[in-house]
Amino acid sequence: MPVAGKVPVAGEVPVAGKVPVAGEPVAGEALARYLREQATEFLRALRQHRESSTEEAAEPALALRAAARRISGALHTFRPLLDADWSDELRTELAWLSGTLAREHAYASRLDRLIGALHRLSPSGPGPGRSGSVPAQHGGLTVGAAKAGALIERQLTLARTRAHSTALQALGSSRFHAVADGVAVLASEVPLRRDASGHPLAPFAADVEARLGEAVAALPLVRAGHPYNAEALLHGLGADAAPESQDAPWHQVRLLLRLHRYAQETNGTEPGHDLRLLGAGQALDRHRDASGAATAAASAARTPRIAPATAYALGVLHADQRHEVEAARFAFQAVWRRAPDRAVTTP
Amino acid sequence: MPVAGKVPVAGEVPVAGKVPVAGEPVAGEALARYLREQATEFLRALRQHRESSTEEAAEPALALRAAARRISGALHTFRPLLDADWSDELRTELAWLSGTLAREHAYASRLDRLIGALHRLSPSGPGPGRSGSVPAQHGGLTVGAAKAGALIERQLTLARTRAHSTALQALGSSRFHAVADGVAVLASEVPLRRDASGHPLAPFAADVEARLGEAVAALPLVRAGHPYNAEALLHGLGADAAPESQDAPWHQVRLLLRLHRYAQETNGTEPGHDLRLLGAGQALDRHRDASGAATAAASAARTPRIAPATAYALGVLHADQRHEVEAARFAFQAVWRRAPDRAVTTP
Lengths: 347, 347
What we know:
The structure is a homodimer. Chain A is mainly alpha-helical.
């Protein structure tokens, strides 16, 4: 991969030696510091991941992904301040990496969520994590819940195992080594444009915030604010992709919200200060998780030759998770409305 | 049936000739007037029902049941003012009659509700009332929705037809003629106790209201007030009767609310004046309907040899209706909290 091998183009200057003007952090310096910090964190997590057993590797993998997302976010938001080609390429590669690493975790948490939901739906049904071990109870439906749990566990465990192999393969690939080298460059010498330090960071961050605001404004928040609006299950038995297309704008807001949070971090704002943004992000994480879980239940129901009782349980489970989607939207709009002036966020 | 043949016991006096004291309606007189009105309405609806074709019979049947419920409610609430044996017996027979007449209507509206829900869940799925006529569309799930609609239509139409026959049979039976004769007695001469006119009606109505208040207080209203609490689907895949047992206290409140409304009517309060009680009643009607529809979907899923796609659609439908149950509880608690002083109700 060319990322690491590429020499920073002419015009880029390391910012480290510059002196801040009038006590305000110079734009380029703040950005470079943030990128260096995150790159260092990435390399630390990578080292820790390499030294961990499979059981211990989950935490460093999370840290690695968090740092990758933050680097990628800063490269995107403050793109005009950076060497564009170099950072675009690193961003693409970081997206590939965090996507690859995220999959294993996503399947694991989807399994937990679905088995947890089955447990709630069927008290004598599958316990968390060992659905197959509980003998079928009285009544066809509880048998169905147990069988549905076993089927989901089988399918998601297989998907997770495959994702684990793919992640291991990725971490050993030359493509990954190129990414790591690129991040290592970032840790020592950020490829800022020559005129970067003259620009303040705020307009770029404000741009992200404006895009976030527009995306939120396009959401059906009034409808989401009416509890039990039954929107999330609308057309839930229609064409297979119907619920997913309805979820997409919410997923988009989730990504923009994260980008906005990272831009705030770059500006030196602690994200913990803005409880509203945190709550909104948590609601959209839940939205994303429930949406994925509902799709997994629907997809398990398309397994050939399953018993009707299993299919019935998967239908109930699908609808349950679609209602979780709706609940997450309700939670999001409630959090979002709470403090529209966002007085807390500006430091 | 002995109702009609029974001669009012000694101690009963017709109240018609009594003079109201100080402009206030005498208790016995108000009660007798209400019972006479409802008995007259019962007989009018019965006559209309006999003269109607099958298509036109639905409206008089509703009126017949409404009058039967009101008579029964008044006999129950103001029991101490009436000849107890006579009114208990008429009440039992009225309950049998309205139960028998209600079934056909319940199956019809349950079918409408479920086909409507399937239509919402599957845009290319079954249209209202003719699920079987739409050809199966793309994707297993839409086929499933169409098949689920056809199955439910078959089962509920059969149940409805049977209920219709049973109702016709009941209306031609000597048991029914005895009830009608009992109501005819009521229309001319209410079997009040000799000392009834001395008692005010208010304490009896207050007693019903107190029972209603206690029953509402025992409901999990705080939980119901949290949108998307997922309570209604709790154990939804467990033992078959799990959701029904959770619904019972709400059904009980529905009946007490109705009894309370009828007691208000007897006291001369127009029920339309209390929007809060009307709204609460509507929410609990919706609760009852959704609960029955959810049970019908679950029961259809236990039909032997159905396709997995059909069972899946029925699972989604069941969960959808259980969420309607939850939505109705949310609506009830919102209405109930709205005006706790009930200033509007006292005339």
